Structures are given as structure tokens and as C-alpha cells.
Please model this.
Amino acid sequence: MTTNQVLIGVGLILVLAVGSQILAGRLRIPALIVLLPVGFAAGVLIDDVDPEKLLGPAFSPLVSLAVAVILYDAALGLEPARLKGHTRRVVVRLIWIGVLVTGLLGALLAAPVLGMSRQAAVMIGAILVVSGPTVVGPLLGFVRPKDRLQRILIWEGSLIDPVGGVVGALVYHGVVASSGHHVGSGTALFLASVGIGAAGGAVGTALLWVLFRVLRLGEVLGTTAQLAAVIGVAALCDVLRDDTGLIAAVVMGLAVANLPSFDVPARRPFFEALVSLILGLLFISISATVTPHSLRHVWLPALGLAAFLVLVVRPLVAAVSTLGTDLTREERGFIGWMAPRGIVAAATASTFSAGLVAKGIGGAAKILPATFVVIVATVTLYGLTASRVARRLGVVRPSRSRPLLVGGDRWVVDLGVALKSAGLEVLMWAGEEEQRERIRRAGVELAPGELLGAATGGGAELEGITAVYFLTAEDDFNALAAALLRGSVEGAVHRLSAPADSHGVVAPFIGGEVLFDPDLTWQTFARRYEEGAAVLGRPAGDALLPGSDLLFLVRRDGRLDPVTEGSTPLPRPGDTAVLLAPGGRGSESPAQ
Model:
């Protein structure tokens, strides 16, 4: 290809990847729904976007390294200790039972339906066990199922990506080892692959420990060094044995997430942006390699395989995984109707199928187009039907706001009581035991002590929270925590204003949504409470009490609109106004 063709091809792939993600975000649908058809159409219509022509033999290794980065990032969010009770039991079962049953039944059907060899069928069965949070998350955000269901499905998706990647790598090496070798030598090669991946993960973990604990690099340099370590170790492992870098990347991510000796930044903006970009580029590139000719004899059997996975395999896995738990029949039914395939299935199919084709495995050329069809079919089906199924089963979370108030002073607790009395499901968090006891006595739900730390670590603890309000006396804490949590919840993150003469290190200078009138600082609330003021709720149609300040409007449909530094919501009939009223304690009570 000429220089101009390469420039056009690379530029188009990048623009299509980011543009598709922007469009999907605006439409509130999984980016996959846009990326796959856009990449396929681009591959058919424009020769310059064919990554195999652009990159030649470098395409497959680059895909493998990109998947290693994705799996490392996914493993960083895996802390199984956060899951408890029946939720933990269901998630663990969905992983190991789901991988075993889906891989086995998928392979048994793929061989006769797709007309491929036993080895290729086992490979596609292993590839299709994965789901992934990049697909499940947007779907659940649109459907809004009950908190427990959302937590189970998000954790399943987060765990199944790295687990599926490791299983796929192990199966791939097992298939390669079994072709052309005796059983003994094949087993030895398989164990060698596992050993190389595990050893590489151990070396990479030691390298990351040096970066984090010994060198103590800054955030920017530390993040790029972390990326270099993952790619370098994965590349070295792949040189020693194909695709063992995936195993090493997962081992490294799990070690960093779970070993107490590591001190990793809670949020990794550059790393998160990079992974998002990699996802878009991979989807566009991989789908561009799928040609109409490769789909001609595959699309119909692959649709049959997808139907079997959706209608038989997933309900079976859900039924077995939830057996003996306290989940309702409706909750079990919804879990049985949510298993879309995502980026790891596409990327591993691209990587492993090329290797198996080179080894002469019968039917290996059908793995990528069949996986492409299954991904498109499952995402489209669940995207169109999940919301309707959830409503039919009665497992949709109420549309009412669910705010999290951070702080435990008297006026903050009264605010929580007022919002709860107005019909909202309020959650509160405080660090001091005295404040936590005050929240309990008020009858407001108390969030677990580790909630904020878990949320900043990328877990699923803040699901269902629609907004966070930082209301503590520490202005710097409010500002930093708000900046840290922004993007971890469905709605906005707000904080109290710092006093104009504040000498804080952060609060006077950091941006973000500031609650209430700028003069309503924590010190103002404390002083007015000493003078007898109270936080209370009253119908918005009534005249405001003299000297009172409007804090929130609870809309008739349960939405919560705060007064902020830049805007004041206008009351409508049926709304409840939450006020800071002078002399209100003892004369008024929160609205019922």
C-alpha cells in the first residue's frame, strides 16, 4: 500500500472507532451495536481500512497485545472479597458453571452445525463463554434492573472476561498441542504454555511492584510505565509461546488488585481512555476483516448456534447457578435472558482462528465469521428485548432518584430524613462511628464503611446510586472525593461550597458541581443550626418560609433536582421543596 493509503486507512479506522462510540453514548446503547456494522460496512466499501493490508503480519500480534491490555485492565477490577452472601454464590456459579456448560454445549453443537472439526468446535465453544462489562453495562444502564440483579450481572461480566481469556488461551494451546503430537507430548506442551504464562505473570508482578513501591513514579509516568510493563511481558511470553501473554496479563492484573503491598491509583484516566480507544479500534478492525464471502455459508448456521446459546444454554446456566439461593423466580428469569457477547470474544476469535488456520485445523476459518454473527445476534436481541423482559418480569428498579449523602452532622441527617419522607430511597455514609450511629437512629439506610473505597477501585458498589452529595465539614475531602467519584455513578456528583476566605489546599481551586447558594457552606449550616434552623420538606406550592433557603426539589415522579451554584430548579405542582428554614426545629417535621 502507498503512504497515502496507509494514512487514509489509519485515520478512517480511528475516526470511525471514536465516532461510533460517541454516537452509541448519545443513543445510550452498547457501542458494539454501532461499531460492528460500521466496521463491516467500511471493510466492504473501502479497501484502505482493511487492517490485514495496512499492517500485514503485524495485525495478529497487535491484536493479541491489545487483548492483553484489556484483560489486565479487567483483572484490576476483580476483588471477589467484595461479593458476599447469595450474590457471591450466584456470581461464582455463573462463572464456573457458565464456562463449563457454555463451552461444552457450544462445542457439541458447533461441530455438526458449522461443519468444522472437533478441535475448531472446542475452540469456538471456549471463545463464546465470555460476555463482558463493556456490553452488559450499557444494556443494564438502559434497562435499570433491581440493584441485586445489576450487581450480579456486572460482576459476572467483569469476571468472565479475564477468566474467558485464560480459558481461551489454554484451550488454544491444548488444541495446537493435540494436533500432530502424541498425547504425552501434547500434554507437556500444554503445561508448558500454562507455566510460561504464569511465570511471565509472576515476573510482571515483580516488575510492577518495583514501579509502584520502589521507584514510586508519578501518576503520568507510573501509568505509562505500567502499560509498558504489561505489553513488554505479554510480548515476551508470546515470543516464547503463542498467546501465553494473555495469561500473564491476567495474573498481573489480579496480583495488583488483590495483593496488599501494591499502591495503585484509584482512578486511571489515561489507562481508562486508552482501553476505551483500544476497544473501538479492535471492533472496527476485526469486523472489517469479516467479508461477505466468509459469511456466505456461515451466517445461517451461526444464527442457529446463537439461538441455541440464548434459548437453551443461558437459561440452563442461570437455573443451575441460582438453585438454592434467595433469588426470586423473576430474578432468575432475567439472569437467564442476559448474556451478550463482547470484545474479548471478537478479539480472541481473531487471534486464535488465525493460528489454527495456519496449523491446518479443519473449519478454523469459520471461527471468526461465526463469532461475528453470534456477537451481532446476541447484542441486537438483548438490546431490543431486555427492557421489555425486565418490565414483564417486574424486576425494573423504580425510576425514583436514589441519592447518596456523604456526611453525618445533624443537619445532614435531617436532610436525609426529609428526602426519605418525600419518598426517595436515601443512602448515607459517614466515617466517624458517632455520626454513623446518628444515621442509624434516624432510620436512614447506612452504606457500608468500605463503600467509597470500593467504588473508587472500579467495583460495582455504587450501582443504583443516581447522585452523590458530599456534605462533610472537610472542604478538601469533599472536593477531592467528588473529583474521584465523578463518572462512577449514573448522575452528577456535587459538593458543598468552600468559604470565600478558605485556605484549603484543593477546595478553592478545583472545579465541579457546587451545591446550593455559594454562601451555604458547611460553616453556615452549622451556625444556623445552632440558632435553631432545621432542614424540612413541604409542598412546593406553598409560600417559602421567611428567611428560608431552597435546597432541593423532589419532583412528583421521584426525581431529585438540587439547587446548584449555577441554577435553581423551578417548582411544579406536586413537587416537594426541601428547605433550610429558620426556627424550624420542633415546629415542623419532614414532609410525609
The chain is about 60% helix and 5% strand. The CA atoms of residues 217 and 551 lie 43 Å apart. Confidence is low (pLDDT under 50) at residues 454-461, 505-509, 586-592. The two ends are 72 Å apart (CA to CA).
